[in-house]
Amino acid sequence: MVATRLSDVAARAGVSVKTVSNVINDYPHITPATRAKVEAAIAELGYTPNVSARSLRKGRSDFIALAIPEMASPYFAELGAAISRAAKKRGITVLIDQTEGEPAAEQFVLDGMRGQLIDGIIFSPITTAPTKITVADDGKPLLLLGERQPGGAVDHVAVDSVQASFDATNHLISLGRTRIAAVGVGGGAGTGAVRRKGYRKALKAAGLPIDPALEIDGTGYHREDGAAAMRDLLALPSPPDAVFCFNDLLALGALRALADAGLSVPGDVAVVGFDDIEDGRYHSPSLTTISPDLDWLADKAVTLLLDRIAGTGPPERLDLSVPYTLQIRESTTG
Amino acid sequence: MVATRLSDVAARAGVSVKTVSNVINDYPHITPATRAKVEAAIAELGYTPNVSARSLRKGRSDFIALAIPEMASPYFAELGAAISRAAKKRGITVLIDQTEGEPAAEQFVLDGMRGQLIDGIIFSPITTAPTKITVADDGKPLLLLGERQPGGAVDHVAVDSVQASFDATNHLISLGRTRIAAVGVGGGAGTGAVRRKGYRKALKAAGLPIDPALEIDGTGYHREDGAAAMRDLLALPSPPDAVFCFNDLLALGALRALADAGLSVPGDVAVVGFDDIEDGRYHSPSLTTISPDLDWLADKAVTLLLDRIAGTGPPERLDLSVPYTLQIRESTTG
DNA sequence: CTGAAAGCGCTTACAG
DNA sequence: CTGAAAGCGCTTACAG
């Protein structure tokens, strides 16, 4: 596009290209006078560096990829916004890649997205089992979001889902509920299994029975899955008096099904979600949910990935636990 | 990263680099035998082209930017997903840039996002007035989403907001409502003004009075703005019996405020939105709204922008009108 | 502190 | 149909 090159700036400022490059890259040992001359020339010519040339030479693009199942899903949209913001602060651009949960797309990510102009990858898998995740030796730095891979070789940043699910279930128990359903046990990449673990743990701790009829698959984690799950639960001989949905979309779908059935929330059935997306906060009734600190997550994930890219990260793989709170709202306390 | 270069492939296949390049770029006049040899070498070495080098040489990156106010807002998240998908089909990668409605960020976009590795820009402004939008002569191709700029020099793809707002308001009139409020008249980049135009037009056509007290600013277009607007409307000496909100988030906020006030929808107040985001479809009551065809929008926007980049677009600036439907749901018909 | 030159990995005229 | 070579615009040893 613009024809201005580094050498044009150098000519105009009366210095060598090396000097201009030094100024642009903020290297030391430039006299203020030289710097001023160069900066004036840059301004006059409206020069901007050619990113392709720089990447080619340096072997770094200052781009990272964020691979998520779908950006239109509110949790991932909010996550993407947080990560983009955190990266921008560090001069890094985020490329968002939608895998749509397709195994081939997820494998492409695990293979380092070869040919893509990126220095590293933040990946939220949904199809690939955590145990299947390994990094190629010649691959780009990879950081995983979501459920943990015990003993894996990849950095992780995630909420402690077992503990959070225990807390969510326990909240329902503390309200005196005894038939507590779980929706989303079939969730991908280990999510369903891990959250069910916390759910069952809370039931056991309270001396409540575990009833497989109350554990619903809910694969897909969308509103329609939550609504369908709730309809199934209401059709049971003895329906639940509370539901822990493994994400907020499932919970919002469940609330819709409860409204359709003419039941009151939390009077007849209390509902808890997971994620704290904005929809849930404004919904009527507002949704009790697990609220992870997305800004914390984004900051740590970007920082750690950039450390890996720079080769300055710790020698061992890291497993960071995202702070969260249980937000108690109308769907459990009226 | 990977050390394999074009010349390595050429050496392995026993041909020149030119031939390998020809195979990769699908140029004609390659014998099937040569092609097979080259493809075998590529597969054996796991070769992938270096994108920086290619961009530097060709002066094209096959990246386009999508500049939107915020990707966590459901409408923009859904728009971003649709545009990413449409671009991917054509081998183009979309870079999402969040302006957060900041004037400086929007100006940066209008200046062609200099220094960014992109061939063109799809831009949804929110702060910059449509009349202020012009393109630099040396700038990259730019395509605008949102309200029209009459007589401007930039391609546009947008819903006919006047007509759509007329339809939405008319739907409320046809239900016998007579005090119809409008929320969002202060919306950025002309949106509020244009939608109010359609709203007023419908009132006039029906012989209903225009009451400025029923036109609420609603700037921000988020749920909280809709809730605040609704509370203001309910505090009027004679509150409205219907509300046309200029986007779905405003409408969802209004529904929340109506629920808090113990009013029934649509019994006491009917509500219409604009955008057809997924939240509205599952909300209880589900939201009557204007539903633009986002896949149509994404396809046309990407195609037209790529034509501009290639220099094959029509000589005149284009103004494409996105098909839409009025989705009638519970918030107006119970 | 600065200059001249090589080279990152491609694509593309230019010859053959 | 293929080969040898130039050049896209940077950064970075290497000299001075």
TrEMBL record, chains A, B:
Q: Which PROSITE patterns match?
A: HTH_LACI_1 (PS00356), HTH_LACI_2 (PS50932)
Is Ribosomal protein one of the keywords? Answer: no
Gene3D superfamilies from the xrefs?
Answer: 3.40.50.2300, lambda repressor-like DNA-binding domains
Q: Name one Pfam family in it.
A: Peripla_BP_3
Q: Which GO terms describe its molecular function?
A: DNA binding
Enumerate the UniProt keywords alphabetically.
DNA-binding, Transcription, Transcription regulation
The answer to whether keyword DNA-binding applies is yes
- Residue stretches making up the HTH lacI-type domain: 4-58
Protein name, as recorded: LacI family DNA-binding transcriptional regulator
Originating species = Kribbella deserti
